[in-house]
Design brief:
Strand order of the largest sheet of chain A: 1-2
Largest interface: A-B, 50 and 43 residues
Structural class of chain B: mainly alpha
Distance between the termini of chain B: 76 Å
Number of domains of chain A: 2
Order of helices and strands of chain B: HHHHEEHHH
Largest sheet of chain A: 2 strands, antiparallel
CATH architecture of the largest domain in chain A: Up-down Bundle
Strand content of chain B: under 5%
CATH class of the largest domain in chain A: Mainly Alpha
Number of helices of chain A: 14
Oligomer: heterodimer
CATH topology of the largest domain in chain A: Fumarate Reductase Cytochrome B subunit
Number of strands of chain A: 6
Helix content of chain A: 55-70%
Order of helices and strands of chain A: HHHHEEHHEEEEHHHHHHHH
Largest sheet of chain B: 2 strands, antiparallel
Number of strands of chain B: 2
CATH superfamily of the largest domain in chain A: Transmembrane di-heme cytochromes, Chain C
Distance between the termini of chain A: 89 Å
Chain lengths: ~350, ~140
């Protein structure tokens, strides 16, 4: 038992009960269906912008990129234009690859003491693979949800749905049916990857040691979102047209509460709202933060260009020349050597 | 240290934030804050006369695809063609001969919701040339 993840799990359970009881027992559909989602989106956008603005107010006076290759120097030394970018183009490519493929995570190493006492380093690929699967599946899931938020549905959403779904693979028993409606791979991959990332934090001692409640909470929350979404799609089906009429009302700021939509939908919507509210105040801000990482987004042209500290202030100095000007006559009287004789100065 | 807070690389940061906000608010500006009305289904006279579908309206709304899948399994793989609903009424398990018999207006009945929810069922791969459909 670990207090940190038990606390997060408990929090998710309470967050599940709030809309469930609120909607089924008290009929608070307007609160959970309209007010909370719209407030959540507002908090998300304003909070996100404020956080980024706050970060942009931190000066980065010096170039501190992490170099992962040979810097450009002499022409006959081969340099790495992306891993040690001296040009802005190189930085752009590096950032795109970082954001889309998580290359710094790809370099993840595992340290291990071998039985003969030697410390060995090995390449640890699974975190990178899990993270890649998780983030891309999440993006695809979010984009294909646009089918509920746009009419007519844009072509790119339909194309994404086409590539994301498959109809023809069916596990079919009387009790358990999968395959209709079509399976969305992204939903399944998202859930599987989130569970993997959670299991990693719970099962590996070293990772558990550095994991806080703030690490478990978003994972539980996203698992909750995925489970409630998958439930609605494959198990306790909901009236999709009614839901789309409702979501379209939300984004046109003219919402009406759908009839005959069960509590699962409100739980799903509330979890998403909680995620949006939680986002700007949590580690999830790495979504914006990755673009502001000075270890990635700066050029490494420090040998070619001079970067001076922007807040250097004028320092009061008193040079030897000025000192001698002040005391020259006294110095000569005392027989001390001077750089400039009295006659030279008087000219 | 600078006395006042200032945004460094303001142009880039603001540009990035503008892109972010534009992307996030996509559903709001894409629809011009005007919701296309949810599709209204048209029932044929035959369907109106029958009053009840195979199952209740709410069930059919959410679960009709599941029912059709069960029917297909039952007919194609088990050779059983008779469906008995909750009221004990018997139906021939057939999309063409039972469903589309009443709902012969595919464009006004099936397609409207399917298009609205971006669903492309492969029922119509085979049943599209249904002779009973009146366009």
């Amino acid at each position: 038992m670990n207090g940190k993840y038990m606390f997060s799990l408990l929090a998710i359970f309470v967050l599940f009960l709030l809309p469930y009881v609120g909607v089924t027992a008290f009929g608070l559909k307007t609160l959970f269906g309209i007010f909370i989602p719209l407030i959540a989106l507002t908090i998300f956008i304003i909070g996100f912008v404020r956080r980024i603005k706050g970060w942009s107010e931190s000066p980065v006076p010096f170039r501190i990129p992490t170099t992962c290759g040979q810097q450009k120097s002499l022409t006959w030394i081969e340099s790495s234009p992306i891993d040690n970018p001296t040009t802005k183009a190189g930085v752009v490519v590096r950032m795109i690859l970082e954001v889309m493929l998580f290359r710094s995570l790809f370099r993840n190493l595992k340290f291990k003491r071998e039985s003969n006492g030697i410390l060995s380093y090995s390449w640890e690929l699974w975190l990178w693979l899990g993270a890649l699967a998780f983030h891309w599946a999440f993006l695809v899931t979010i984009v294909r949800h646009l089918r509920f938020f746009a009419e007519p549905i844009p072509y790119f959403v339909r194309a994404l749905e086409f590539f994301d779904s498959f109809f023809r693979v069916e596990f079919f028993t009387d009790a358990f049916q999968v395959g209709l409606p079509g399976i969305y791979m992204s939903g399944i991959v998202l859930l599987a990857a989130a569970i993997y990332l959670l299991a990693r934090r719970i099962l590996l001692a070293q990772v558990r040691y550095v994991s806080l409640a703030a690490d478990y909470f978003p994972l539980f929350l996203i698992i909750g979102i995925a489970v409630s979404g998958i439930m609605m799609r494959y198990a306790s089906k909901v009236d999709i047209v009614g839901i789309k009429a409702f979501t379209m009302g939300l984004v046109t700021l003219n919402p009406t509460i759908p009839e005959g939509v069960g509590a699962t939908f409100y739980v799903h919507l509330f979890f998403v709202s909680v995620l949006l509210i939680y986002f700007p105040f949590s580690k999830l801000m790495h979504m914006g933060g990755i673009f502001m990482s000075p270890t990635r987004n700066l050029t490494t042209d420090t040998r070619a260009k001079h970067y001076s500290n922007p807040w250097n202030y004028p320092v009061k100095t008193h040079t030897y020349e000025e000192y001698e000007d002040d005391y020259r006559e006294k110095m000569i009287d005392a027989g001390l050597p001077v750089d400039k004789e009295l006659a030279e100065v008087k000219e | 240290m600078p006395d006042q807070k200032q945004m460094y690389d303001k142009g880039k940061v603001v540009a990035g934030l503008v892109i972010f906000v534009v992307l996030i608010t996509f559903p709001f500006w894409y629809n011009h804050l005007k919701a296309a009305p949810a599709p209204q289904l048209e029932l044929t006279k035959k369907a109106q006369a029958a009053k009840n579908c195979v199952r209740s309206k709410d069930y059919m709304k959410a679960e009709h695809m599941q029912l059709l899948d069960v029917w297909r399994e039952s007919v194609v793989r088990n050779g059983e063609r008779v469906y008995v609903n909750e009221e004990g009424k018997e139906f021939n398990m057939s999309l063409t001969n039972t469903c589309l018999d009443c709902h012969s207006n595919k464009a006004e009945f099936c397609d409207r919701c399917h298009n609205y929810a971006s669903v492309n069922p492969y029922c119509w791969d085979c049943h599209i040339d249904n002779p009973k459909e009146k366009k």
